[in-house]
Amino acid sequence: MKKKIIFIIAVVLLVIPIFIIKNYRKESSKNKDNIVEEVWYGEKKVAYLREVEGNYILEIDDVVNKKKGNIEGIGGYLHNINWSPDGNYLTVDGGIEATSTTYIISVKDLELFDKIFTTGNTVWSPDSKKLLIGVENKEENIDLAIYYLWSQRAEPLLEAKEGYDYYPEYWKDDNVGCAKVSGENKESFQIKYKPSLEEKIMSIAMNKKEIDSKELKTIISKLPEIDLENLEKIYGEGSDIKILNWLSKQSIKDKEDIESILKISLNLYDEQHTIISNLMKDLYLKDKITFIKALAKVPKAMEETAYAFKTFELYETGNEDMIKDLDMFSSSNVLTEEEKKLAVEFLNIYDLCGI
């Protein structure tokens, strides 16, 4: 008898949510007049276009975040609602010309995030951080481009020449589908999308993903190769600071990793250099012997590092004792004779530095 009651309760608990979802869909649509387009994301988010006296209004009902309302700042003839894979954004096109005004909407904030001019389909990337779009270039041909939400900028992926255009078709995993169109001739093909080093690292840093020590080691070894200009193009101003702040929170202890940090420091300035210097100071205090062995591999960084440590008054405040450290380095069984000489020279440079 007890098993039968438990079974009935389980069935009821399963049926009720299904009924609520179906009823929610009915009520959501039933209470809206003049709907010309309605697109759902899952079962609890819906966007619809409603025509009012010739003008189109975009409305969003987001049960997950308990938000509902009209999106201001857009209007006219709207069409083609397109949800991002994660449901946090959607696009809607405006106008009747070949080149549309594509509005990007933040669903969470119920507001216009950005607007761009596109030709052809607008295709979301699998990670919802990018859009594959067609963009008219200076020669009035259509380039295939990628729009990055982080920086609100578009960069060409395939540049069209006179006589043909590129149009987006799909983006699945790392496969980008597009069409090359010349007059009435159309050739569909796909290419592999290879994210740049900057994009790979930034996606980890921005998403605050936990990574294992092996992956961290790989990333740190590649950091000296980062193109900060390219990083800013993709992720916008301040992205370099975000990466360095993320890096400073990681568990770094191997000599090779410290070598990479020292190499990075040679190309940084102002706030960038302050963050990396603070990280180097922490690494030095954590394991001075390993730090000196790493510094011996990057001797060019010695003077700058000594000066940076002096600005922190590393030996003037706290419990650090330079004489004890000189003795430790000189008597070390781990350091080579060359590394011992470098350690002494490093501390001498520190001592001579002005603040």
UniProtKB/TrEMBL annotation:
<keyword id="KW-1133">Transmembrane helix</keyword>
<dbReference type="InterPro" id="IPR011042">
    <property type="entry name" value="6-blade_b-propeller_TolB-like"/>
</dbReference>
<keyword id="KW-0812">Transmembrane</keyword>
<protein>
    <recommendedName>
        <fullName>WD40 repeat domain-containing protein</fullName>
    </recommendedName>
</protein>
<keyword id="KW-0472">Membrane</keyword>
<feature type="transmembrane region" description="Helical">
    <location>
        <begin position="6"/>
        <end position="24"/>
    </location>
</feature>
